[in-house]
Amino acid sequence: MFTLDNTECSTKITIISSNKFEIWLKKQSQYLKNWCSSCNFKGQTKKIILVPYEDGRLMQVLVGEGENCDLSGLSNFSKESKGNYYLETKYSNSLEDDFYIAWLWGSYSYDKSPKSSKSLLYVNSKVNLINYEIIHKATSFARDLINEPANILTPINLKKKIFENAQFKNCKLNFITSNELKKSYPLTYEVGKASINSPLALEISNTKINKNDNPIVIIGKGVTFDTGGLNLKPGNSMRYMKKDMGGAAIAIALFLIIKNFLKKTKIKLIIPVAENSISSNAMRPGDILTASNNKTIEITNTDAEGRLLLADALTRTKELNPKLIIDFATLTGAARAALGEDLPAYYTNNNQLAKKIDSTNYSNSIWRMPLHNLYINKMKSDVADIVNASSDGMAGSITAALFLQEFLPNKKIDWIHIDTYAWSSSFLNTKGGNLQGLFAMMEFIKKNYN
Fold it and tell me: Given this model, what pLDDT does residue 116 score?
């Protein structure tokens, strides 16, 4: 993946933005100018040119990033290449971290068959080598989880994969099932009780957490498959519902990364896990459920189940008194209709947090939406404290966020909710499990909580 050894056999990869191409070209040999002309290379997005020596050996690789810092070409080259390489980035507009993320992203494969050889990219320090390998391992594990079929990644198998993964070495691992789950995560139990694959909850921390430690709490929605319940999804909408635990996967990746960067910060990971299925004892529209904080919820739509899992987890944070809560969830189609597959919506109850998020280098990869409090009226119930989904179908992502806000143990706790898709057919030209929101939150936490 990465190496500290920049040998004489290493080949240079030059990343060129289309708006810096002419500047780069003026400094090149006539041979290279002619080669670019014959290949019609001008730094276009995804364009890859292999430049040979006169004897046919590879001299260097030119990768275009277009005008918008699109490193899909580098990601594609990482996927297909063999050998050792190093980067020249003087004529690129992308961030340094993005080159290495694009490289590791492209080299990922859900196909676990061993490759005959792998490409290595030079990094200039041991610290960077370690950091990028941490990110590589965490993101690969998270993408594997999303890409796993639901008949393999059942709730108990998700637990096993986490507990057996070496990245969780020295962490405090706990899981909750059966009668204790009914008590501590009653909504998760109700969502998952219709499945033969029993629901559970995972609680993991990087170290022992005491009463006054004020940890960062990371929460992920872990619905391993979502039929929609009795409000059954149509076939097309159900096709990729194995990814409905994508919020959990992103939360896991963030936990694994920041626990290595924040040595003194205590971090808690909470993953409620269930399969939303159909049987004679399935949750029904009109049912009234009671959360562990005694708030009652009228079920208006069984396909709005993910917020019930998150409500359990948010309520659970009361005993932790966290300094920050971040939750990730594949929560609403409304967010996708508004922002598309690659741009997650985020909500926060603190404008200062929003300013800090928007000042990160990844502010253009995540978009703030309003917690418009007047829309809480859409969530009123005649027979309970709140409904789980509004009936008019408008502002669906906002009303989902407002529902979650009702389960914060303290409205003044800093809270960020990310409504993500966890799947992509376009990010760095790859299809499958994606981790939208991860890198923005990673940089935000590193900048503000180290």
Answer: 56
Residue-wise pLDDT tens digits, 76-110:
999 988 899 999 999 999 999 999 999 999 999 99
Q: Which residues participate in catalysis according to the annotation?
A: 233, 307
pLDDT in tens, 398-413: 999 999 999 999 989 9
The one-letter amino acid at 445: I
- How does residue 8 score in pLDDT terms, banded at 50, 70 and 90? confident
Buried residues in 426-450 as b, exposed as e (16+ CB within 10 A): ebbbbebbbbbbbbbbbbbbeeeee
First to last CA, the chain: 27
Determine how β-strand 84-88 pairs with β-strand 11-17. Answer: parallel
Task: Read off the tokens for 283.
Answer: 């949750």
- Determine whether domain 2-124 maps to CATH 3.40.220.10: yes
Domain range annotation of the chain: 2-124, 134-448
> Which CATH number is associated with domain 134-448?
3.40.630.10
Write the single-letter amino acid at 195.
S
Q: In what order do the strands lie in the sheet with 288-290?
A: 288-290, 296-298, 386-387
Give pTM, 2 decimals: 0.96
Q: What are the C-alpha distances in Å from 223 to residues 33, 80, 140? A: 54, 34, 20
Please give the Cα distance from 318 to 133 (Å, whole number).
35
DSSP letters of 168-222? GTT-EEEEE-HHHHHHHSHHHHHHHTTSSS--EEEEEESS---TT---EEEEE-E
